């Protein structure tokens, strides 16, 4: 890479938190190799952490809730201005609105871009007018990126089947965004008698939190000392966000322990016997990759993303989506295994993640793509 003109990479998302949480290793690798990394996202508490890593931060207003044409056009116009002023060599867009409006903005500013679909989420789960509009916008916007990345085969198949890709030859499959295998090293299961389950993630109904709470009630009726924890931010900017009142009610009932949120989830994973994610749909959930890397068995829904990480019966158990009874059945099955059985699942999970989801493989994929599209070698 030329010493006189460092590579300039922009990462654009609807939250700075997601950039910091999910692309920490990528940023570290890019900065270490001399690239200038610009994060364009709404401001939140992780911005100082990104700046400490060496990123340049640029604020962006993105309305995650609703489909206000005025607000969305404002996002589009702001991105065009940013791209023309910053002149990045390559832009990576993440999440729905940056993918749609950012892809168009990059084309207008004559800046090459890549769209990364991090999970189809709310839009594809709901059958609504907003979902229909979003699909039409995807179909229009995705003619502009140089490549469109998908984190699992199901999402790629959905876009292909619904003819949302103007250039199917530009679609690429990236198996998740990887996990740092050294940072998330295996640790022994806790020694306590009471089984501890934890759900880690943004507190959204679409993550299956309602089913988790209902399943906790069912399991605790049979195993009263079983503990069920929630770890993650409340009140996030998402149509599926869970409010404080619901969580307070569950805590008051004694069915749930709410742990707040944490930058470092490792102590919480280490203190749990099993990590649970009854999500309605995912990209490739990082929380499950991290849990498996640390040797924790998993109970998750049999949906895109989750089933990419969990080998049913080998590294954990899969349950039916939106089905608290099915979830409770698998949680009871996990309890019945005992510590040795759970440890065996966790050990196989670590092996699977190490072979399929090593973050270093993902970083290498970024490096190869950056070189092919810009000519820069990192």
From TrEMBL:
SUPFAM superfamilies: UDP-Glycosyltransferase/glycogen phosphorylase. The keyword Transport does not apply. It holds the Pfam family Glyco_trans_4_4. Keywords: Transferase. GO terms for molecular function: glycosyltransferase activity. Residues 21-161 form the Glycosyltransferase subfamily 4-like N-terminal domain. It comes from the Bacteria. The keyword Transferase applies. PANTHER family: GLYCOSYLTRANSFERASE, SPORE COAT PROTEIN SA. This is Glycosyl transferase, group 1. It comes from Burkholderia lata (strain ATCC 17760 / DSM 23089 / LMG 22485 / NCIMB 9086 / R18194 / 383). The lineage of its organism: Bacteria, Pseudomonadati, Pseudomonadota, Betaproteobacteria, Burkholderiales.
């Amino acid at each position: 890479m030329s010493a006189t003109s460092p590579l300039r990479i922009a990462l654009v998302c609807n939250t700075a938190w997601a950039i910091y949480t999910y692309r920490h290793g990528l940023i570290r690798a890019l900065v270490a190799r001399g690239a200038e990394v610009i994060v364009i996202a709404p401001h939140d508490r992780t911005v100082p952490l990104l700046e400490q890593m060496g990123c340049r931060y640029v604020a962006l207003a993105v309305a995650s809730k609703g489909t206000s044409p005025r607000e969305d056009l404002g996002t589009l116009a702001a991105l065009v201005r940013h791209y023309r002023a910053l002149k990045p060599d390559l832009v990576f867009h993440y999440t729905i609105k940056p993918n749609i409006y950012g892809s168009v903005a990059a084309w207008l500013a004559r800046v090459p871009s890549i769209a990364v679909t991090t999970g189809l989420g709310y839009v594809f789960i709901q059958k609504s007018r907003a979902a229909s509009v979003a699909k039409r916008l995807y179909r229009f916007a995705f003619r502009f990126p140089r490549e469109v990345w998908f984190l699992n085969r199901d999402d790629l198949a959905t876009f292909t089947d619904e003819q949302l890709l103007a250039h199917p030859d530009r679609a690429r499959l990236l198996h998740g965004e990887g996990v740092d295998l050294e940072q998330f090293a295996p640790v022994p299961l806790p020694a306590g008698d009471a089984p501890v389950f934890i759900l880690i993630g943004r507190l959204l109904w679409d993550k299956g939190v309602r089913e988790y709470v209902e399943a906790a009630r069912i399991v605790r009726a049979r195993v009263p000392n079983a503990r069920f924890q929630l770890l993650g931010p409340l009140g996030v900017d998402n149509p599926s966000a869970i409010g404080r009142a619901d969580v307070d009610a569950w805590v008051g009932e004694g069915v749930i322990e709410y742990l707040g949120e944490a930058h470092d989830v490792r102590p919480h994973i280490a203190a749990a016997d099993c990590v649970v994610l009854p999500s309605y749909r995912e990209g490739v959930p990082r929380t499950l990759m991290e849990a498996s890397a640390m040797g924790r068995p998993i109970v998750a829904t049999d949906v895109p993303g989750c089933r990419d990480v969990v080998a049913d019966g080998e590294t954990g158990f899969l349950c039916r989506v939106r089905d608290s009874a099915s979830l409770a059945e698998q949680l009871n099955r996990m309890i019945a295994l005992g510590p040795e059985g759970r440890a065996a699942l966790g050990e196989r999970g670590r092996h699977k993640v190490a072979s399929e989801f090593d973050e270093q493989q993902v970083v290498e994929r970024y490096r190869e793509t950056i070189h092919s599209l810009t000519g820069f070698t990192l």
